[in-house]
User: What shape does this take?
Amino acid sequence: MKILAISVHPDDETLGCGGTLLKHQSKGDEVFWLNLTEVTQELGYSDEYIKSREKQIKIVISEYQFREYFDLKLPTTKIHTIDFGELMLKISAVIQKIQPEIVYMVNRSDIHTDHAISSRAIISATKSFRNPFIKRILMYEVVSETEIAPPLPENLFVPNVYSDISDFLERKIAIMKIYKSEVQAPPLPRSIENIRALATYRGATVSVRYAEAFMLIKDLF
Assistant: This one.
């Protein structure tokens, strides 16, 4: 089975579905990663930071043993400046090349503008009549982006699919630590303590030790 994880920024994939990706790998599935944005000097990032980020991504790719990594290299925090049709076509081209059966994507109501716009483009790029090979689409939650959206009905993340990651949480956390600049000290949301707490809470919801939660967008199985 072919699995595609789509992140808007490197670390979304680990925060949102890292344990589940490791689980897919353990079952022998082919797992692919599509990332949409990158940091550049033009956006105010130092050369040292950029090189460090690139090194981190290479290590993460190795840790997950992704079959292939795709990077659209769009400007981080500037997705809103890109023509929507162009964004959708870039994502669609990768999907057509991989032809995944399961797609993991960011939540459509995350507070980060990059996430909100990209999620719309991903949904447009995964339409059934263009991609009959896609059997399931799941939106994942990203701490500090999903839960702090305004508490309006249309923004709520209401999970209806859970993945037992009890055997994979420690590896997920180890991979998250590779993104040194993204790990925060408690009580901030991206602390290791909070990542573990969320996995514990989601697990308790379905009576397992640790879990990741998703909103099901499409299911043809």
